[in-house]
Amino acid sequence: MNYTHLGRTGLKVSRLCLGTMNFGDVTDESTSLRILDEALEAGINFIDTADVYGTEQRPDIKQGSGLSEEIIGRWLQQGGRRERIVLATKVYQPMGPGPNDRHLSAYHIRKACEDSLRRLKTDHIDVYQMHHIDRHTPWEEIWQAMELLVQQGKVLYTGSSNFAGWDIATAQSAASARHFLGLVAEQSLYNLTARTVELEVIPACRHYGLGLIPWSPLAGGLLGGALKKADSGRRARPGFARKIEQHRRQLEAWEGLCDALGEAPSDVALAWLLHKPVVTAPLIGPRTVEQLKEALHATTVSLSDDTLDAIEAIWPGPGGEAPQAYAW
Questions:
Q1: pTM of the predicted model, to two decimals?
Q2: For 199, which of 83, 84, 258, 322 could close a Cys bridge (C-beta 3.0–4.6 Å)?
């Protein structure tokens, strides 16, 4: 496993980040624990979760259960693991029926952090990420709450997820005025079919020294050999079938290119992201141990300039960075 710095920090993380959104949902606890064991054995030291992940969600109020965090906590309780991993979780989503059981008020940040620490059975979170932007809470309040958690030793670094480029700039401007480190990483939707972040989010990350952690790197399975696996698992659902038909010509060219390379489409899709300078680690979310082992190969896949050009021809981006992408 290769390692790189998380953004501008001195912290080193693996080039793949283990996402645990499926833990306690489509992946049962025993399999989740095996995935964690195998990931650590393979050298993955970057583990990402969120307070909202888990199956026990109340449809009436759409609140999370914290089940994924609890599974990780029970894994950490087995000993000898906490200081070998970089543990990331998130705050923002509804975790209760009350009006203050969500978003980024200082009130909720404090409570959510305490609850996550309890579920994770640890005394600190390495990277505490805001799961979404909250434009109803001023940055002075957010950073004051985060600074207090850092001072208390409960949080080491802060990150964001689903932020616009100008949200990152605003956040870092407010943090700088307080002489606070601010954001060190951003989690964004980024894959060959979804490249909007290339306009402004990636330039903002590069300018402010944030590591980019792409989520859904395989576009929900579309880039993982969807044509050959169209009748299996989630790909057999009507909604996914429609998505395949929308992209059929591109997928035929894509899977043909991967066949010519002798590599699995999922590995090439991950390798493409790993070739992007701002990308720290794509977020993989294996549902099984076998899927985890398959993803590990992506870190060894090297793509030539000609191959990268061929990929760009199949899956063109927005035309570069803003404003050059759309203005003279």
A1: 0.94
A2: 322
